[in-house]
User: Fold Zinc-type alcohol dehydrogenase-like protein from Paenibacillus amylolyticus.
Amino acid sequence: MIIAKARAVDGPDQQFRSAEIKRRDLDTSDVLIEIKYAGICHSDIHTAHGDWGPVNYPLVPGHEIAGIVTDVGTGVSKYKVGDRVGVGCMVDSCGECDNCRKGEEQYCLKGNIQTYAGVDKYGEPTQGGYSTHIVVTEDFVVRIPDNITLDAAAPLLCAGITTYSPLHHWGAGPGKKVAVVGMGGLGHMAVKIAHAMGAEVTVLSQSLSKKEDGLQFGAAHYYATSEPETFEKLAGSFDLMINTVSASIDINAYLSLLTLDGTIVNVGAPAEPLSVQVFSLIGHRRSFAGSMIGGIRETQEMLDFCAEHNIAPNIEVISADQIDEAYKRVLASDVKYRFVIDTSTI
Ligand code: NAP
Ligand code: ZN
Assistant:
């Protein structure tokens, strides 16, 4: 048994506290990772606050994990001690269903095992990356390219793959007009990645306060959704829209911005439903879709793509004592553009 230091929360209205958690002894295929950095995803906040339903507390969130391999099980072949590695939103899946065999483990028909707030195959609750160590089966570990620093790598493990996967799947590239709705952690990665894929990128943000950043990340256009004329001006414009907003929005207003056969992909995961008027869809053969993270193979592909295109998130590194304050700032859309915990401060 390995005892790791962690930061845990005991209820929706509680503050984070120091904790010790158990990590299992290494099974043959397991890798022990000393976590160096853990990103703060809005999903951590939804989960900690119970937005998506009841959670077993104490909860240690964190699914944007970057660190160093410090031990390996006897059957591990892909990693060795000293390797720079990452772990994202899932730590296991059945490995046998159609979706797992396709490399889409996030859509495992038996349900993938989430990095935190899940139950692993040993029947133990999973605890995430706001901690010093984690044990993960090697098939759910990815390699961090040498030219990406570990602090910047962490947010790629969720924000990066969650935006790369739909952009790739729906063919963002030259000649395609892509809009990114909401420019927070996911949104700013969507802008950088879509631009690197060759698409013409537009940001739709609540205000123009982050316009300079958006243009610097690669957007060609930037509009405020608080201005009603934005929706008139952009009607019928976009082939693909990635909605990263963490709250419920008037999705019909956004659907009206799609061109013939255009698609909005929802990656934002508000607790409240989004009400779609069918006429928003049938008028121009539009689609309203969703997407969840990406598979392990695709996550490695995304990391290699980011390394090749020199893409990294804009981060603010914080100490473990600042987690509560960081949550408040994320909820106020006051994050540029991802908080990353330096786990040496845990
Ligand atoms: P974030 O950093 O808080 O970014 C969300 C952005 O949405 C904000 O920066 C803000 O952008 C905009 N926004 C927030 N509240 C809004 C409101 N009331 N009306 C309009 N716009 C609003 O969060 P994140 O970490 O990127 O995560 C975004 C969402 O994706 C969360 O719901 C999260 O749970 C979900 N998520 C889903 C997956 C998946 O697999 N599908 C993976 C990770 C996260 P502006 O300031 O630019 O307007
Ligand atoms: Zn996430």
Summary: The longest strand covers residues 30-39. The pocket of NAP (ligand 1) is lined by residues 41-43, 46, 158-159, 162, 182-187, 205-206, 244-247, 249, 267-270, 291-293, 330, 333, 335 (CB under 6 Å). The longest helix spans residues 185-197.
